[in-house]
Amino acid sequence: MPCPWYRGGLCTSPKLPKPSSAVISPTRCQGGKAEYVACQFYVDPESGRKQRSPLEAGMRPAIAEQLRPYPPIHLVHTRPRSRCPFMKVYDYSGGYLAQCRVLNRLLTRSEVEICDKYWSSCPFYKLGLNQKTSEL
Ligand code: SF4
Ligand code: SF4
Fold it and tell me: What separation in Å is there between the alpha carbon of 123 and the centre of ligand 2?
């Protein structure tokens, strides 16, 4: 499995101001976990998620517990266009959260931008379509 921040030739780490190909290294970004966790731009996607309780978040407890939003990484202020059928958008704390139902996790701000622009060429979109087809 590649690094969870690796998307379409870009690093979407929240440590970067915007997605960039400048820091990409195929062996590290598309290697195993041992390679990518040592990267200076890697952030554990689970880190910080337990800092807000569902009530603080103002979200239905079951959903907040399931999605574990971390606003500095996940909260977007403009509603995503969500043209990808696998993106689900939630109103949250004065902004929005976007969940990818293929990855089954929240998308970071930079990922939401990429999904809005390039959803039709996203490998996870294609994977989602294949999964749906095989379920029929
Ligand atoms: S390994 Fe580092 S540079 Fe590569 S995608 Fe992950 S965080 Fe970004
Ligand atoms: S574009 Fe890809 S990553 Fe984004 S929501 Fe759709 S399937 Fe998920």
Answer: 8
User: Does residue 85 share a domain with residue 69?
Assistant: yes
CA nearest ligand 2 atom 8, residue: 100
Do 29 and 74 fall within a single domain?
Answer: no
pLDDT in tens, 101-112: 988 889 999 999
**Measured between alpha carbons, how far is 76 from 132 in angstroms, rounded to an integer?**
28
- 124 plus 92 within the same structural domain: yes
Work out how many domains the chain is built from and give that number.
2
The candidate with the shortest Cα–Cα distance to 102, out of 70, 135, 57, is 135
Ligand 1, atom 4: nearest CA belongs to which residue? 29
Each residue's pLDDT tens digit, 36-53: 999 998 888 766 444 444
Quote the domain boundaries for residue 93: 49-135
Please indicate, yes or no, whether residues 32 and 53 belong to a single structural domain of this protein: no
Encoded tokens for 23: 């820091």
